[in-house]
Specification:
By secondary structure, the chain is of the alpha+beta class. It has one domain: OB fold (Dihydrolipoamide Acetyltransferase, E2P) (Beta Barrel), CATH 2.40.50.90. The protein is 29% helix and 26% strand. The chain is built from 5 helices and 11 strands. Strands 1, 2, 3, 4, 8, 9 and 10 form a 7-stranded mixed β-sheet that branches. Strands 5-11 form a two-stranded antiparallel sheet. Helix 3 packs parallel to helix 4.
């Protein structure tokens, strides 16, 4: 059973939804920390800090910072409520889905998923499993739509796709597997 750090199951069930606190320290374009706990958007992969793209003015910009700026802007503007989906207690990391409800305008009453918003605007990506399959398939659909529309970071030809970088590193660091020895027939 997944529970909050140090919380009883009843307390955890009551408090699974929470607002992103104003005191949150944003770490990446898909995570923030508060009170010693890291919160990460489930199924979302931000651009990696230290990777860069060339903007329309020909200037190199940090891709991770662009993702981070969009997460901060959407979180502050939308004020989503987040739900504890899963935890990694050993790293004090909570994976969350975050939803905002529009209160005015044509979309009043509609819900906006923060992960979908980041991916659909082209400032984040659908996270992939080590086998290359999406962690959360609806996010991959949003990514394909953003990519085809050249939304956000997809508009830049030298966009450093974080999933390609991560998967390449995983495969390079994977232990080499040796082929199984050929079976031998017993000799008479």
């Amino acid at each position: 059973m997944l529970t909050g750090f140090g919380a009883t199951p009843a307390q955890a069930a009551e408090s699974r939804w929470f607002a992103v606190p104003a005191t949150a320290l944003y770490l990446t374009g898909d995570s923030w920390s508060d009170a010693g706990v890291t919160y990460r958007l489930y199924g979302v992969q931000a651009c990696l800090r230290g990777t860069s793209f060339t903007n329309v003015h020909g200037l190199k910009r940090d891709c991770g910072e662009a993702s981070l700026a969009m997460l901060v802007a959407l979180t502050r503007d939308l004020r989503p409520e987040c739900y504890h989906a899963a935890e990694q207690p050993e790293t004090r990391t909570v994976f969350v889905f975050c939803l905002a409800t529009r209160v005015r305008g044509a979309g009043a009453g509609s819900r906006i998923d923060l992960g979908t918003a980041l991916i659909a605007t082209g400032f984040a990506f659908a996270a992939l499993k080590p086998d290359g399959q999406p962690v959360h398939p609806p996010y991959f659909v949003a990514q394909l739509v953003a990519q085809r529309a050249k939304a956000g970071l997809w508009d830049f030809a030298d966009l450093p796709d974080p999933n390609a970088i991560i998967l390449r590193a995983l495969h390079q660091n994977a232990p080499a597997t040796s082929p199984a020895p050929a079976s031998r027939s017993p000799t008479p």
